[in-house]
Amino acid sequence: MKTIAIALCALILLSSAFAQAEELPLRDVSEVKDWFQSNPRNVKDIGDPFVLAEESGYFMFATGGPIGFNVWRSNDLLTFEKSKALKKLNWASGDYWAPEVYKVGEKYVMLYTARCRENGSLRTGIAFADAPEGPYEDPLGKPLMDYGYATIDATLTWDDGGSPYLIYVRDCSENSFNGHQESHIYGVRLADDLLSTLGDPVLLLKPEGEWETKSGDTRWNEGPVVVRQDGKYYLFYSVNGYWMKEYSVSVAVADEPLGPYIKQENNPLLVYAEDERGAIVSGPGHNAFFTVGDELFTAYHTHTYPQAPSGNRQLCIDRAGFHSDGTAYINGPTLAPQLRPLREIGLVNWMAQAESDTENAALLTDGDTCVSPASAAWAWQGESASFHWQEPVQAELLILYPAAGSALKGSAVINGSLQASFDLPAAGNPGQAVILPFHALLVESLELRLDSSGPLGEALLLGHQM
Known about the structure:
2 domains, eight-stranded antiparallel β-sheet, single chain, mainly beta
């Protein structure tokens, strides 16, 4: 009887504690709408976007015209103003593709693809400017290099000693391999002035996996871009035909800029999305990266008309990052509203400083929202996820991401006494989340109590820096 009485007393105390939780007064989501932005952005009929983030603004370059290149300048990644960055070149007849721009010393360097007037073959060019918006001038009057075959989609990276490397694609239009036409990715050392190559090119990647050979007898590994992270070289690239919904982004990793590269096991990272109507995001690919503050973003294109894919593509931007085990992720594709760069809206994600005794709670603070797939999600096992802070943090917004678009139902309890319930159905727009804005308060603890068994991708608790 004594044991039963103690258990009953504990149950009454627990029920009393739950009953004492007050409703957290929530603000209307419309009051914080300026903190969010959505894909696609208002730049269409382009391809292969590249965003350069500068103190003076954002500069987007892309495939988008028969002659030369435009630049789209923006202060907020929402509205863009277009001007001409590179005019017609004497050595090129057309097909100006895939421009990328880097700041090197006091100059801005553009790499690009164009069709050679002399022989009709695609080649890689280089141009320089004093300002990010140009105008860019060609110092060579000819392609950067000529290996006797078509080259496209050039990108730059540097080793630990500051030596530059050119990563490019041997285009499938002039590359037969094992009975197929294939695009292969190569790398070569560049001279320090970037105007010539040193040594022989090295084959880095070719299409081999099931996910990158869906296009039949013509196959692609293209659109390379390299991110250096913790001593590793992450080579992101696109697979399948650009007009296919299966056009998607994958990644391979190496210890040196010229490899050998090992393709990550959970490829592809960025893929199309469908609902009962069919494709709602088609062909997400040819991505590039930029940083805003401490956040990594990737720009990529998708088909403007997802159920009728074509060369008409549009700009999309999502977050990306790396797990503690070194695997890369991309939080996309998204259509639902996402937070603008935190530096732009003056917010801090306090979850990075939270402590927790909950098993695998780090999966909720790793930056991966698990839009697709859900492999790095926190699996609910009937226990709540609890977090606390050594010093109270001032917060006013809680965002919860269900993994891979699953339903999410439960409640969030702040400081053990303020409770907000949520019920998010499944099958919403990719990247959907529970968004709970409230009036600023000091937070010492956060508990997430889930009523459903769906996995949770990420939790964000945001506020202004104190």
